[in-house]
Design brief:
Layout: E1 7-9, H1 11-23, H2 35-43, H3 49-54, H4 57-61, E2 83-87, H5 116-129, E3 133-137, H6 147-154, E4 162-167, H7 172-182, E5 186-190, H8 196-203, H9 208-220, E6 226-232, H10 241-250, E7 253-259, H11 276-286, E8 291-292, E9 301-305, E10 310-314
Parallel strand pairs: 1-2, 2-3, 3-4, 4-5, 5-6, 6-7, 7-10
Antiparallel strand pairs: 8-9, 9-10
Helix pairs in contact: 1-5, 7-9
Pathway: Cofactor biosynthesis; molybdopterin biosynthesis
Organism: Ilyodon furcidens (goldbreast splitfin)
Cofactor: [4Fe-4S] cluster
Length: 315
């Protein structure tokens, strides 16, 4: 199963997807059973709702009639999409230059956003289809008031192996003990500079110390590795590539260098983009023995490692 393959479930499109999946729910009661297989089960007088639900996922997926991975989540190249990203909010407490304009963006009306129950229903439907990793994103997911409740409920889903969060780290430190208690498995923290003034110039807000405190707190609570996302932009932070690699020597963190990508309102310019190959060439000048690690057929990241620590670069 390709570990790097994922689906992104955005706030704007999720309701249409929810309606489509929900309407098919009677025909597809579990995982990826075919319509014919479900019809057989539905006609079985010995299979009541109670004893159907009491059957474990393992029992349903083993035996003579092994249920294949969901055709719904398998693309035309045969890649199995087992990784779901759910955007909990469009709101963010930063205004990163590579992400949105300084004045912010027009927000979707509250009534059109996913409710807590809709988030959990969507997650449940996808897990039944074979998704085993869910990442909560935003905006900034940790400013959503019910984020702890959502994580706690996700952890109850049978078959879901990993719940992760991508955050800017501004509110993370104070929430980390409760996040750990609810069972959050993985944390990705955005950090685009190791220089306080430059960080605040890029994100257009103060708070560098809060992000660094969150990284330290995550390490203290046993998250290993803590993953760092760094968007590299020419003229801003491309001179810090080696500093970020050295940062991984000091703390149990992995750094994922991300190419600057065009978004509405972020004034993208090709001249500002530092390519994956250019990043790799610069790092190899200091660490020439880097080797590329084996990746899945649909991974979006190119993992490399040397004598020091793993590094990840993403297109």
């Amino acid at each position: 199963m390709a570990a790097g393959t994922f689906i992104c479930c955005s706030l704007r499109s999720a309701r249409r997807l929810f309606a489509r999946c929900h309407n098919r729910g009677v025909q597809r009661m579990f995982s990826s059973a075919t319509h014919q297989e479900n019809e057989i089960e539905l006609r079985d007088p010995t299979l009541t709702t109670a004893n159907f639900q009491s059957r474990t996922r393992l029992e349903r997926l083993t035996g003579e009639n092994v249920v294949p991975f969901s055709a719904f989540l398998t693309d035309s190249f045969g890649r199995r999409h087992n990784y779901l990203r759910i955007s909990l909010t469009e709101k963010c407490n930063l205004r990163c230059q590579y992400c949105m304009p300084e004045e912010g963006v027009t927000l979707t009306p509250r009534g059109q956003l996913l409710s807590t129950s809709e988030v959990l229903t969507l997650a449940r439907l996808f897990v039944r289809e074979g998704v085993d990793k869910i990442r909560l994103t935003g905006g900034e997911p940790l400013i959503r008031p019910d984020v702890l409740d959502i994580i706690a409920e996700l952890k109850k889903l049978e078959g879901l192996k990993t719940v992760a969060v991508t955050t800017n780290g501004m509110n993370l430190s104070k929430l980390l003990p409760k996040l750990r208690e609810t069972g959050l498995d993985l944390i990705n923290i955005s950090l685009d500079s190791l220089v306080s003034a430059k960080f605040e110039f890029i994100v257009r807000r103060k708070g560098f110390h809060k992000v660094m405190e969150s990284i330290d707190k995550a390490v203290e609570l046993g998250y290993n590795p803590v993953k760092i996302n760094c968007v590299v932009m020419r003229g801003l932070n491309e001179d810090e590539l080696l500093d970020f690699v050295q940062f991984t020597e000091k703390k149990p963190v992995e750094v994922r260098f991300i190419e600057y990508m065009p978004f509405d309102g972020n004034k993208w310019n090709f001249k500002k983009m530092v390519s994956y190959q250019e990043m790799l060439d610069q790092i190899r000048q200091q660490w020439p023995n880097l080797e590329r690690l084996e990746a899945g057929p649909a991974d979006t990241a190119k993992w490399v490692t040397g004598k020091l620590v793993p590094i990840s670069s993403s297109l």
